[in-house]
Amino acid sequence: MATETTEQQTKLTTSLVTALMLFLLATGAYYWTKSWRLTKLNDFNELRADSLLSVKLRLEGDIRSMESQLETATDNSASLDNHITDLHHVVNKRTAEIGRYRQQSSRQGRTIRQLNDQLTTLTTNRDSLENQLEAMRDKIGWLSNSNQLLLSQNKDLQKKVENLTTSLSTKVPISTITGDAFLVEATKSNHKQTAKAKKVHDLTVSLDIPAELQIAGTHDLFLSLTDSQHNAMMAPLRSTTVVLSDVNEVIPVHATQTVNFSRNPQRISFTLTPNGPIKPGKYRASVFTKDAYLGSVEFLFRDSFLFF
To answer: Which residues form a coiled coil (predicted)?
Structure first.
């Protein structure tokens, strides 16, 4: 029984030892496997750590590069901000200039419209003036023709006047218009006679009307005073036209009176007061009726010296 018990105990012990050894073997295998896995995991982790470190270093380098780039970007941003600010100022300036240019353009547009209106008005005025000029040219042509005609008529009149002067000088020679026929008397304000031009206050021209003239009825007589150039000696009362045998002559009238020629011969006198100063020189007093020349006389007024 004891042997069996020992054997049983030995078997039990062997079984326990075997079981323990199997357990230890299993445990060792487990831990070895686990250790191997841990070693492998550790190696993997170390490789990963090295890789992560490399990545970290690259990232740190990238970070430093990015920080540098960021600083550069910040500087560039500040520069860009300043540049943008400058651009804003430039844009504002340009906007203001554009506004001024628009205003100037608007004013210039108005000015151009006004100039166009003025140009239209000037064109109209020019056309009107051209029409007026054309009309004036036609009128000038007409006046030129009229002037030529008047010049021709004037030449004819001058010839007639010359002929009349010659005729008058031959009708009444100067040598016969003296004495008690024609008489010219000039008196001063004190009624004394004078031959000085500036002293003349009253002028009397008298003449005899001979019966040989055969004038009948009542007629108006005209006294005409002229200088050597046939100009009026002084301002006349009026002018009139006398009808002579060969020409009609316009004479200045300085005095007039109505005379009845039923009694012939008779003496006629004209007295007048000059209406202005008389210049020294030679003058002619002529007497006319409306249709006849009655004669003339020449007389002379001299200049005064000093106060005389």
So the answer is: 112-167
